[in-house]
Design a protein that fits this description.
two-stranded antiparallel sheet, about 20% strand, 7 strands, about 180 residues, single chain, five-stranded parallel β-sheet, alpha/beta
């Protein structure tokens, strides 16, 4: 914790191991993201809701991690946005609160330091939201957290815009070590 993240808290419904072939979760996430099966969003969001209950009244905004335009075109959907839509009851869903200002390499192919460098400065709060984020509580939603570099960089952008509280909610956290 020599360098604490810019977010206040991160929670994951499950521990995730890419090489765990006995678990259905890695297969489901891979099919959702790389098999491009958006219909898995509902069941995966239910698992997230069950594994990490949260109170919608604790947050002003629910924001998905944005995809690059290239990845969005390839996949056809933003998996984080689909999860956020299923979770958003009672909280203002802000699909475009954050935007990528540049394309990045896929994080799955990179080590810790490369991941941090890859996403550094890659996000900003969209101009339309800048005034509404000051003093707000934001729940950032993503599918998988590995090193936390993406969540950190999204949170840096939210902090610059004045967000008072930033929590991260993910379906799965890659096992450390």
């Amino acid at each position: 914790m020599r360098r604490p993240p810019a977010f206040d808290r991160a929670r994951a419904a499950f521990i995730y191991r890419h090489d765990d072939h006995s678990s259905a979760l890695p297969r489901a996430i891979a099919r959702f993201k790389y098999g491009r099966i958006p219909s898995l969003a509902g069941p995966l969001a239910e698992l997230l809701r069950y594994g990490c209950p949260w109170n919608p009244s604790d947050y002003d905004w629910l924001a998905p991690v944005p995809l690059s335009l290239e990845r969005l075109r390839w996949r056809g959907f933003n998996q984080s946005l689909l999860l956020a839509r299923y979770l958003s009851s009672g909280t203002h869903l802000a699909p475009t609160l954050l935007e990528r200002v540049r394309a990045t390499l896929p994080q799955a192919e990179l080590g810790r330091r490369e991941r941090q460098a890859n996403v550094r400065g890659a996000f900003r709060v969209q101009r339309d939201f800048a005034a509404r984020i000051n003093g707000a509580a934001v729940l950032l939603v993503d599918d998988v957290m590995t090193t936390g570099a993406t969540a950190h960089e999204c949170s840096v952008a939210l902090r610059k815009a004045g967000a008072a509280k930033i929590d991260v909610l993910v379906l799965a956290r890659v096992a450390l070590g």
